[in-house]
Each structure stands twice: as structure tokens, then as C-alpha cells.
């Protein structure tokens, strides 16, 4: 019988084991480090695969990552012959959409200002803008960005997105490529980052890019900490060029104790919780991909190693 090895959070692994027993009795589920005979292992799901993967599991057919990003992986240690598949599932994307919506609403409904007012005991209503007056711009047009944009469009926000290749989505002004960045930023007052971390995007959220946003803009950073230059963020908040930031990811995670961003009144930090894969949905997504692999169909979430995402 082919075997599936799980190497990630052990508590979740127990849930995966129960789900595999119910939904895929023809695949033997094993949890790292109890991998049994390595020759049986055809599939693996891991946050970090073991070094010398091909020597450890010579018959491995598919490597699944248990997250949506692959920036933590050393691609050179994963044989080219083994397809790498990242986590794509609708519930995962919906979790991200909820987080982004909440962050945008915080800005739209002046929650940072009211928190400051409350701290000073001030009762001062502010005018309410309609959602259509709030210009949200999303960096990235992938699985998570599209789900977030879908919800933002439903609520009536003025939405735009920027990506590498051209996309179309109803209710979203789509920008593509480096030459379109300036125009995208100029019309964006809430910038949401949902890019993968690659050589091209590392450090992208620096002073040069952020200062092209209109004065008073806000940042929602939900992708990877290393996209953002924390020093640039602090300077732009201090000058008032940026009015607030929401950070679900930082570099390092967590920020060191005493880092000024922890206590900044215009910054909200959450511990990388924007979304997480639920075992029941993740297992279905993995089993569907195993089926597609055997039927010769393209798998959902197959990583293009040249692009790096
Ligand atoms: P996808 O791979 O589906 O989408 C990536 C998007 O980014 C694509 O639209 C792609 O453009 C665009 N892109 C990539 N590189 C560039 C570039 N150099 N210039 C312009 N656009 C670029 O990713 P997901 O939506 O699934 O996930 C996005 C990221 O979200 C993950 O990589 C991860 O970092 C982060 N994440 C955060 C979580 C959290 O809890 N905070 C949880 C899960 C993920 P194109 O369409 O043209 O290819």
C-alpha cells in the first residue's frame, strides 16, 4: 500500500491521521518520525522536508507544503523530479479575506483615531465615508488576493490590484508589471500586500515604494515580514505620510521585546494568524491533488520553481 508521511504540527497530524483513515483507506498515513519502510512513501506533506529528501524517500511522487508560501524552503534540496504543491483551499482563502476586510474596515471607520481618542477620554464623532470613497489596492492577484478582493468588491470598496501578469476581475482595476506600479500606488490609500516572498519581492515595501502612496495612506501587511523595511515604516509613520499599519507578519517573528513597533499607537500587530489551513479542508485538497496526479491532470497549487511561487 502506498504511504503518506506527514511532517508538521503533531497535533494537527493526529487530525490528518483520522481523516486519512476515513477518506483514503487505501493510503497508509504515517506521522514523522515514524515513517516505516521509506520505500513505501509516495507522498509527503511537510512544513520543512528532511534534508536529502530523495535519499530518505527514493520513491516520493509529490511533496506538499502545509502552507501557501514556499519562501521557507530550500528548493535546491528538493529534486526536480518531485512536484512541489502548496496549500490551496477555499477555506484558507476565506480566512484571509476576513482578516483583510477587518483591516480595511479599521481604516475606513477611523478605528485608529477612535482608539487614540478613547485613550485621551475624547468623545468626537467623525464623518462617515462610503466604502466607494475608500481606495484599496492589493499587491498580488493570486488565490488569497482574489478571495479578499471578492469580499471588498461586495462591500463596495474602490478596488485595484497589481500583479506580474495581466488579470481581469469585475469591479477591480487591474495593473500589471513594474511600469504600472506608480499609477497603482498613486490611486491607493489602503495598500494590502499579498505577494509571495521571492528574490523580486524581498524588501519591496521600502521607503521608495511606500512614499509613492498618497499622504495619509495605510498599510496592511499580510504576506511575509521580509517584504517590509521596518525602519522605512517607522519614518513614514513619524512624518505622517503613512497614517497606520496593520502587520500580521514581521521579520523576525516575533519582533524583539521593546521594538518600537510593538507600542506604536498607529500600528496593530497580530501573530501571523490571518489564516490557517483547517485539517478537514486541507486533507481533501491533498487527496484531490493525488487523484489529479494519477489521472494525469494538473494539480492545484503546483509551484513553478523558476518563478519562485
Ligand atoms: P499566489 O501564488 O496564488 O499569488 C501570488 C500573486 O503575486 C500572483 O498574482 C503573482 O502574479 C503575484 N506576484 C508574484 N511575484 C510578483 C512580482 N515580482 N511582481 C508582481 N506580482 C507578483 O499566492 P497566494 O495568494 O496563495 O499567497 C500569497 C502570499 O500570502 C503567500 O506567498 C504568503 O507569503 C502569504 N500568506 C500569508 C498568510 C498569513 O497568515 N499571513 C497565510 C498564507 C499565505 P501573477 O498572477 O502574475 O503570477
CATH topology label of the largest domain: Rossmann fold
Number of strands: 12
CATH class of the largest domain: Alpha Beta
Strand order of the largest sheet: 8-7-6-9-10-11-12
Describe what this molecule looks like in 3D.
With 309 residues, the chain is α/β, with parallel strands linked by helices. It has 2 domains: 3-89 and 277-294, Rossmann fold (3-Layer(aba) Sandwich); 90-269, 3-Layer(aba) Sandwich (Rossmann fold). It has 9 helices and 12 strands. Strands 8-7-6-9-10-11-12 form a 7-stranded parallel beta sheet. A 5-stranded parallel beta sheet has the order 2-1-3-4-5, with helices on one face. The relative contact order is 0.13. The mean pLDDT is 97. Bound molecules: NADPH dihydro-nicotinamide-adenine-dinucleotide phosphate (NDP). Residues 68-69, 140-145, 163-165, 194-198, 200-201, 222-224, 248-249, 272, 274-275, 309 line the site of NADPH dihydro-nicotinamide-adenine-dinucleotide phosphate. Residues 68-69, 140-145, 163-165, 194-198, 200-201, 222-224, 248-249, 272, 274-275, 309 line the site of NADPH dihydro-nicotinamide-adenine-dinucleotide phosphate (NDP). One of its GO terms (molecular function) is NAD binding.
List the helices and strands and how they pair.
Elements: E1 3-7, H1 10-23, E2 28-31, E3 41-46, H2 53-56, E4 62-65, E5 84-85, H3 90-108, H4 111-119, E6 135-139, H5 143-154, E7 158-163, E8 172-176, H6 181-186, E9 190-193, H7 207-210, E10 217-221, H8 230-238, E11 242-247, E12 267-269, H9 279-295
Parallel strand pairs: 1-2, 1-3, 3-4, 4-5, 6-7, 6-9, 7-8, 9-10, 10-11, 11-12
Helix pairs in contact: 1-9, 3-5
This protein binds NADPH dihydro-nicotinamide-adenine-dinucleotide phosphate (NDP).
